[in-house]
Write a structure and sequence with these properties.
This protein has 8 helices and 8 strands; from the N terminus they run αββββββαββαααααα. It is of the alpha+beta class and about 190 residues long. The strands form 2 sheets. Strands 1-8-3-6 form a 4-stranded antiparallel sheet. Helix 7 crosses helix 8. About 30% of the residues are buried.
């Protein structure tokens, strides 16, 4: 899923990954276990060695919406909650058994403040996350078929990892809409 979280494509995260692997605490999350719950402070960030997480947001009406995923060789945390030590806006839940190297807020901040280069890296990482979030926001002004096609171009095997209803939730449409889009794509391919 290398292209799902596009912020990973913009910078070399190898030093930060190494920090997590060398100084982080290894934590095993079982399927359906939470890394953080909405409205709780996210005290840890993690580097996913294996497994996958989904990010969900529960709105005022109690509807749960899938708003993101994190896959192996990616970071997992509610960045805003973690960095500002404020309540998380999302739930982050394991959708498979996961192996994660975790570091505390203080450990990550200490690293980011090591020198000019790590401070610059922290700024560039935040900019990459902002850019990814901004693109996702703008995607919601595109038709559902366009959003689905872009998602499948970025992550062609996502549909083998994530159920259709979850892809639909992420796209902000019904599972029936995703089925219609898939059918339409198949019919276009046969013409």
């Amino acid at each position: 899923m290398n292209d799902f979280n596009s912020y990973m494509n913009n910078l070399d995260y190898s030093d930060l990954q190494k920090l997590f692997q060398e100084k982080g605490n290894l934590h095993i999350y079982h399927k359906k276990e939470f890394l953080v719950r909405q409205d709780e402070v996210s005290h840890f960030a993690g580097w996913i060695e294996s497994g996958s997480f989904q990010y969900t947001y529960i709105n005022e009406e109690g509807t749960e919406n899938i708003v993101g995923y994190a896959f192996p060789n990616e970071f997992v945390c509610d960045y805003s909650s973690f960095m500002k030590e404020r309540p998380s806006l999302v739930n982050i839940q394991a959708i498979t058994n996961c192996t994660v190297y975790e570091l505390s807020h203080n450990e990550v901040v200490k690293y980011m403040e090591t020198n000019f280069e790590t401070q610059r890296f922290g700024r560039l990482a935040a900019e990459s996350l902002f850019e990814m979030a901004y693109r996702r926001l703008l995607d919601f002004y595109c038709p559902p078929e366009t959003r689905y096609l872009r998602l499948m171009q970025r992550c062609p095997n996502l549909k083998e990892v994530v159920p259709l209803k979850n892809i639909a939730s992420f796209l902000g449409v019904t599972p029936e809409t995703v089925s219609h889009i898939r059918k339409k794509i198949l019919l276009k391919g046969k013409s």
